[in-house]
Amino acid sequence: MLILGIESSCDETAASVVRDHTEVLSNVIASQVEEHKLYGGVVPEIASRRHCENILWVVQKALDEAHVTLEELDGIAVTYAPGLIGALLVGVNFAKGLALAANKPLVPVHHIAGHIAANYIAHPELKPPYLCLVVSGGHSHIVEVLSYTEFRVVGRTRDDAAGECFDKCARAMGFPYPGGVHIDKAAQKGDPGAFTLPRPKIAGNEYDFSFSGLKTAVINLLHNTQQKGETLDHNDLAACVQKTISDVVTEHTMRAAVDLGYNTIAVAGGVSANSGVRKAMTAMCEKKGFSLHLPPLSLCGDNAAMIACAGSYNFDAGIRADAGLNAYATMSLEENVPENP
Q: What is the reported pLDDT for 164?
């Protein structure tokens, strides 16, 4: 089975061909990071325009590198939610046109389901059910992966996502966009015990996250230090931010695993590339005797191989979309199958 995956939910235009769920034949990504760095974050209008410029050659290159023709494909998978609506629409409309022209089934993929599927590429032995921590710039979820296409979210962020908190703290410290990687580098040279930062607990669901208080505490600490004319070691602060976020996501995931009876854990999303998160999750899983699956760094960020992989499982499950498929800026992971108008 050959599936072409298309991803355009944020600022990466990506296309990939995957064979039999997990064999990646090509994985092409056109990144816009350098352009958005000028503005300190992703500018949605610019992202949409670049997707329009890049998507044709990116898809063609993915097919060429895989040595596959449109006629040989079994289906075309595309991210339809969640993400920047203008960016998503570029990928969705291109995929609809391509599927119509090639007379191939169109397969809708939820972006978070794609991140979860990245672990199947790296770890073909991983099979549901298991518990997955999904941490990225826009999402912080603890997910019960019931099957390859069925999910139950048991924990989620109430405000800022983990990656969003990393980026906002980094910006306050003067690091360039994207800030998470710079905090990770600075943290290697800092003292994680130099500052005491808040670790909010959420009433009503002990698995949920809240990182807005941490972000505010970091900004206030920086402002107060500046107003006093004092200096603050950014390496120490970066180390404290990283340790706090890593400890919180690990503690919540482990609590959910124990309560719900899971001993197989996976981590997915852009923040799964963070060394602090990987180290904390590895140490805690080793302590508890849990099996841990981490995606390689190349599959942590947005890419189309994960969309093609998730799409192949949707294809097997008979999940299809027609020309009425729309894009959605927000959509719960449990609503994995869109309703066509």
A: 92
- Residue 336: predicted pLDDT: 62
Left if phi > 0, otherwise alpha if psi is -120 to 50, otherwise beta: which for 311? alpha
Same domain, 153 and 100: no
Q: Which residues of the chain have pLDDT under 50?
A: 339-341
Same-domain check for residues 108 and 145: no
Tokens of 189: 């040279």
pLDDT score recorded for residue 200: 80
Same domain, 103 and 206: no
Mapped onto helix, strand or coil, the DSSP state of residue 158 is coil
Identify which of 142, 180, 196, 193 has the alpha carbon closest to the alpha carbon of residue 297. Answer: 180
CATH number, residue 148 = 3.30.420.40
Same domain, 18 and 107: yes
Q: What is the pLDDT of residue 337?
A: 57
The rounded distance, in Å, linking the Cα atoms of 46 and 155 is: 33
Total-model pTM? 0.94
Q: Which residue has the tokens 């089934």?
A: 105
84 neighbors 327 (Cβ within 8 angstroms): no
| pLDDT score for 53 | 98
**β-sheet bridge partners, residue 34:** none
Number of domains in the chain: 2
Range of the domain at 7: 2-115+300-316
The DSSP secondary structure of 250-312, one letter per residue, reads HHHHHHHHHHHT--EEEEESGGGG-HHHHHHHHHHHHHHT-EEE---GGGTSS-SHHHHHHHH
- Distance in angstroms (rounded) separating the CA atoms of residues 92 and 88: 6
Helix, strand or coil, per DSSP, at residue 129: coil
Residue 337 included in any domain: no
